[in-house]
Amino acid sequence: MLTLQSIKENPEYIIERLAVKGFDGRGPIEQVLALDTERRRIQTRTDQEAAQLKKLAAQIGALMKQGQKEAAEEVKKQVADLKADTRKLLEELDATEHKLRELLLTIPNTPCEAVPEGKTAADNVVEVTGGPMPDLPEDALPHWELARKYNIIDFELGVKVTGAGFPFYIGKGARLQRALQQFFLDEAWKAGYLEVEPPFVVNADSGYGTGQLPDKEGQMYYCQLDDLYLIPTAEVPVTNIYRDVIIPEAELPKKNCAYSPCWRREAGSYGKDVRGLNRLHQFDKVEIVRIEKPENSYAALEEMKDHVRSLLEKLGLPWHILRLCGGDMSFTSAITFDFEVWSAAQKRWLEVSSVSNFESYQANRLKCRYRGADKKTHLCHTLNGSALALPRIVAALLENNQTPEGIVIPECLRKYTGFDIID
Predict the structure, then answer these.
(1) 371 strand-pairing partners
(2) What phi and psi, each to the nearest 5 degrees, are found at residue 108?
(3) Which residues pair with 349 in a beta bridge?
(4) 207 and 218 Cβ atoms separated by less than 8 Å
(5) How far apart (Å, rounded) are the C-alpha atoms in residues 305 and 258?
(6) What SS3 state is found at 46?
(7) 56 and 364 in contact (C-beta within 8 Å)?
(8) Can you tell me the distance from the alpha carbon of 168 to that of 144, in angstroms, rounded to the nearest whole number?
(9) Fewer CB in 10 Å around end: N or C, the chain?
(10) Where are the alpha helices (DSSP H) in 165-296?
(11) Phi and psi torsions of 345, nearest 5°
(12) Crossing angle for the helix pair 26-65 and 11-20, to the nearest 10 degrees
């Protein structure tokens, strides 16, 4: 969440930047300032009464030493009244601080100055394009037809066993999935990311820490009996490793990667854009997460973008990078770059990765800090990115690499699959 200090220092700037995301921040920001004023008023009164109680306690002691018991009893009555008033003040203070935090949780992160203005995905900016564009015949098959032809993904069986959006991967399809997972993890390891295998369910505190709650509660699968959430991305458990942690400055940056299945309800998704692997309720992904000093986070963001781009280049897929406009960004992000690959049979771009810098927004919710040379604690910056999400990568690989003989496997994956063609 936004720091109270940043709001107090320049509320008009915060309101202006929130407008880039299409969020009208004037009302909430004014409420935050009003609650903070009330909080400080109550705190001042509480401190004054605490000081008065200390004086009265000393006065009682002096009166008792002088044998003035009646006078001491009168002062004790004052103390009792003052303590009762202080209890009420502390209750008011707690309630005000709770309201203030709850309100701050509803305000999105401010986009950085580099974020273009715009309301929808149509306003995103294509930064760079690369990779060889496939030249397929007009009768090229989409990936769901290829999956049926070669018996590598069974969508109907998934519907039978679970429901739409939960496919079965079979035979070489399952091996391709596993090959991609291992390839992405190995490449992250080479790039200096420490692999962790996190839990695939998290508690509410973790959801609030990274901003999925309360913003995306309706998109998460919830285990009501245990009050746990299935993760929508490994970002949630991995970033929460550093919740309530003060990291020594010398240990930064922290670089982690993790494979996980991911679950998203995707409520309201329908139509041709969700066919096949285009949009699933359960899918596999390798995530990279970084915890950085603020002055290093944008250089780290470029490193993460380069890493994702290198994966797509090794897979031989055509790609481009989008700088998201304010209206298309997530609640928590300060800036986001989406990577899309070209799906040749569908003749459309498919998003396969988002790489984001959250600056101090998540860190403030998480209380993720580092201790600097000045011996003081400072908020870290957090970043994450998909490296990569599998479903649309598989869709593009199947479609773009189809030949009359079968689907050719990229060279970089063959040591993992154990075969070079799906036929």
Answers:
(1) 248, 377
(2) -70, 170
(3) 342
(4) no
(5) 17
(6) helix
(7) no
(8) 12
(9) C
(10) 172-190, 204-210, 235-239
(11) -75, -35
(12) 140
Dump the DSSP string for 172-209: HHHHHHHHHHHHHHHHHHHTTPEE----SEE-HHHHHH
SS3 of residue 120 by DSSP = coil
**Which pair of tokens denotes residue 301?**
């963001």
Per-residue pLDDT of the chain (423 residues; tens, 9 = 90+): 999 999 999 999 999 999 999 999 999 999 999 999 999 999 999 999 999 999 998 998 898 889 888 888 888 999 999 999 999 999 999 999 999 999 999 999 999 999 999 999 999 999 999 999 999 999 999 999 999 999 999 999 999 999 999 999 999 999 999 999 999 999 999 999 999 999 999 999 999 999 999 988 889 999 999 999 999 999 999 999 999 999 999 999 999 999 999 999 986 555 556 899 999 999 999 999 999 999 999 999 999 999 999 999 999 999 999 999 999 999 999 999 999 999 999 999 999 999 999 999 999 999 999 999 999 999 999 999 999 999 999 999 999 999 999 999 999 999 999 999 999
Residue at 120: amino acid letter: T
